[in-house]
Hints:
The protein is an alpha+beta fold. The protein has two domains: 8-165, 3-Layer(aba) Sandwich (Chemotaxis protein chec), CATH 3.40.1550; 184-244, SpoA-like (Surface presentation of antigens (SPOA), Roll), CATH 2.30.330. It has six helices and twelve strands. It has helices spanning 8-22, 68-75, 84-97, 112-120, 152-163, 194-198, and strands at residues 32-33, 37-38, 47-56, 60-67, 102-104, 108-111, 126-132, 135-144, 183-186, 216-220, 223-233, 236-244. Strands 1, 2, 3, 4, 5, 6, 7 and 8 form an eight-stranded antiparallel sheet that branches. A four-stranded antiparallel sheet has the order 9-10-11-12, with no helix packed on it. α1 (8-22) crosses α3 (84-97) and α1 runs parallel beside α5. It is elongated. Residues 175-245 form the Flagellar motor switch protein FliN-like C-terminal domain. Belongs to the FliN/MopA/SpaO family. Pfam families: FliMN_C (PF01052).
Amino acid sequence: MTAPTITAPQLTLARNAADAALAVLPTSRALSAAAPIAATADVLADGQAVTAKFSGAANGEVVVVVGQDLADALKESPLGELDLTAAVRPALEAAARVFGPVVLDPGVVMESGVAMSSLATKEDAVAVPLVEGEEVRAVLALALSPWPGEEPGQMDVARQQSAGPGIQLRGGLDMLHDVEMEVSAELGRTRMAVRELLSLNPGAIVELDRAAGSPADLLVNGRLIARGEVVVVDENFGIRITEIVSPGTERE
């Protein structure tokens, strides 16, 4: 049942916001936006939410709730654990920009029930289930203060802004291209007893498990992705890549 205090044009804007968010939401599922409903705490009980407030042409709050399967998939990315906030931020931005130029705050990860309970206390809060068949897999929820009015001028502006050329929507891993990740190089490893560690002093030599001249490992978030030669670049060490490591062959 839709929220009785929300007008048809406002529901249309909520649906447009959901479509915009869905275009950049990182999921391999074929999701579609269902009919908007009143925001409630249990619209998607099993999942994680990212909530962010925005201001500018419109003022309000936007919430993206993803199922636990997507949250787990981000943790098990081939490049290591990915931050949920960074992963869904393009979806938050796309939804908020339907209402015009806005500034979005960094966003906060919450349990889905907590985020939706908080949003549901706001007047005219709307949720749009993102479904696969009849199964709710994610949710886009909004609360604006106030919502755009029904006057033709206001609605036309909102529609133009939601369809304007300034928003370039990206899908898949493209949306994560600006996420910074820790990159490190490893020359080798060894194991030492505690008494050996305690006896270390300046000048001591620790022998590693790799022969001289062997390639160094390049790791992203602790996961091996490449090997290469150690070089010097402007008095700093660097790695010249000689091999890209395929997933599943890290230990070969």
